[in-house]
Design goal:
single chain; about 300 residues; alpha+beta; D-amino Acid Aminotransferase, Chain A, domain 1; D-amino Acid Aminotransferase, Chain A, domain 2; 2 domains; eight-stranded antiparallel beta sheet; globular; binds 4'-deoxy-4'-aminopyridoxal-5'-phosphate
């Protein structure tokens, strides 16, 4: 799906026209993947457009930058303000938001000392990542032949641009094979995450999801789903999972800012549970969307209205 253009992009401190948001071809990040980024969503709420868990996303952006010794030349509050300003300036009711911190133009050596750290934030309307119908019908996924980046090669705790080459390999393989998405294992054969989503299974009424130490990103939607599930009385266990745990589960679902909460109906051509969205998945999904769109007082603190 092509990006739907809007009027403005925030670039290094000011709003510029969409078509003018450009970088030099010798930018460090373009060659070496030396950038960190975030994916955030804003939803239409009774308080107007509100950014979902904006503070947590910005916090993760700084944590990613810290891993790569990148000094972001702004305070977190400034990027929070810039994000809100951008959504407002583009008159977006609901959208996807992409902050990017990257090494710009200056030096070509691998040592990034002396290369400027630049920041941009873009926003545009983006619907359900795995398809609108997938939110109800669920997706078919495949265990990737590509392993998730190892903790000691490219730390999965950082949401770094270059690391996504690993996810791209997995995503292409899955889609070319006729599946909707990939699930990636770590070097020990434990499930890490999807190419851009965390995974949960439901077995005998309990929820299980891999621990961060197995190489998944500390997803903010993962945390939202865990909070909602516990608030509703479910036990949520962070535990290493192997692919057969998913084959035998009653339900499975992905969480992610782009994918939101999407049921998984099949892994490696094995039907999961009844092969459709399960009742617990549905309940969590409905609560998640109600929280994100400002319908639930209990989760109002997750919302950052732009007005
Ligand atoms: N795992 C990976 C590899 C991801 O790229 C993402 C998307 N950021 C997630 C999990 C889900 O994280 P979040 O819920 O914060 O979007």
């Amino acid at each position: 799906m092509p990006i739907q253009e809007v009027a403005k992009i925030w670039m290094d401190g000011s709003l510029v026209d969409w078509k003018d948001a450009k970088v030099h071809v010798l930018s460090h990040a373009l060659h070496y993947g030396s950038g960190v980024f975030e994916g955030i969503r804003a939803y239409d709420t009774p308080q107007g457009p509100s950014v979902f868990r904006l503070d947590d996303h910005i916090k993760r952006l700084y944590r990613s930058a810290h891993i790569y010794h990148m000094d972001i030349p702004y305070q977190p509050e400034e990027l929070i303000g810039a994000t809100k300003e951008l959504v407002k300036a583009n008159d977006l009711a609901h959208c996807y938001i992409r902050p990017l911190v990257y090494l710009g133009y200056g030096e070509m050596g691998l040592n990034p000392a002396g290369v400027p750290v630049q920041v941009s934030i873009a926003a545009w309307p983006w619907g359900a990542y795995l398809g609108e119908e997938a939110l109800e019908a669920g997706v078919r996924i495949k265990t990737s032949s590509w392993k998730r980046n190892d903790q000691n090669s490219l730390p999965p705790a950082a949401k770094a641009t270059g690391q996504y080459i690993n996810s791209i390999l997995a995503k292409m393989e899955a889609v070319n094979g006729g599946y909707d998405e990939a699930i990636m294992l770590n070097q020990h054969g434990h499930i890490a995450d999807g190419s851009g989503e965390n995974i949960f299974i439901v077995t005998d009424g309990k929820l299980y999801t891999p621990p961060l130490s197995d190489g998944c990103l500390g997803g903010i939607t993962r945390d939202s789903a865990m909070t909602i599930a516990r608030d509703q009385g479910f036990e949520v266990i962070e535990q290493s999972l192997v692919r057969t745990d998913v084959y035998h589960a009653d339900e499975a679902f992905f969480t992610g800012t782009a994918a939101e909460i999407t049921p998984v109906r099949e892994l490696d051509d094995r039907t999961i549970g009844e092969g459709k969205r399960g009742p617990i998945t549905k309940q969590l999904q409905e609560t998640f969307f109600a929280a994100a769109t400002g319908e639930l007082e209990q989760y109002r603190h997750w919302l950052y209205p732009v007005n």
